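Protocol step 4 of 6: structure prediction from sequence.
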Amino acid sequence: MALELDPKTIERVTRIICDIDGPFERRGWQLEALLRDAGWNDPPVYDGSSRVLWLTEAINSADQASVERLICRVCHPLEYDEDGIESAELVRQEINQVLALQGLTVSQVAGQPVMARLGGDGVVYTAPEELEPRLRAIIDDSATVDWLLERAEETRICEANGAYVFALIGMGSFVEYLLYTFLHQWDPDIKERGFTDPSGRRTTRPSLDHLIKTAHSKGYIQLDRRDFMDRVRDYRNFVHLRHQTEKDLRPDRHTIMMCWGPIRAVLTDLEAVASKSSPARDRECG
């Protein structure tokens, strides 16, 4: 889901975020903090100019993944001190009125804001667009990114042709390798010593269940992501027909859509971690 926001959309979203003289007004330093909390890498410093103009220029200079994280962050209850859920919902409604003109919306996945597209059947979660640059921003090894892109494309082909079970298997496989490579690259302990299984023994083949729990326990993905990814993991096990018959579930396109939502959220979490860690890594490399 490429954003490709119209300049007018960006301006209107910016005015909502700044909320000059409104109940959610943000000062210059608060806008800087908002960008940092949205996982922007080295966000611009507020220069005292018009806040709307300054933020508009910052958005225009940012990559699409950063813009998506910013819009979702401003709809997050954590941004609001009192009545966080109610305040965030009011802002989300305003944002969505603007985004709807471009067929976009900020929806909720387990209480967390996630960008989605509006379709004939309402909110539609799809495989992440702009996937290649987003993966290359968080995974250093080019061959690994190529493998992930290939698996994502195979999954989309299955989805488009109604092979929903195999699409679920592909989604689980994609997330498994994404978490494996991300943890191996970004977690200092795993990078140095490798993975351990639940009993504490070293392993080179951690399960998807273990990867999801490890990513959450180390603070790389949020609790709701872990919980919803457990469902994706369970559906991935439909590779075993016995497991599917025991569940008595025949997945359809809505099943696939519901699984893309948490996967998109996981990717956003990993991007935020990588963005905040990049300056330190750059200094080490220098």
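Step 5 (inspection) to follow. The first strand starts at residue 104 and ends at 109.
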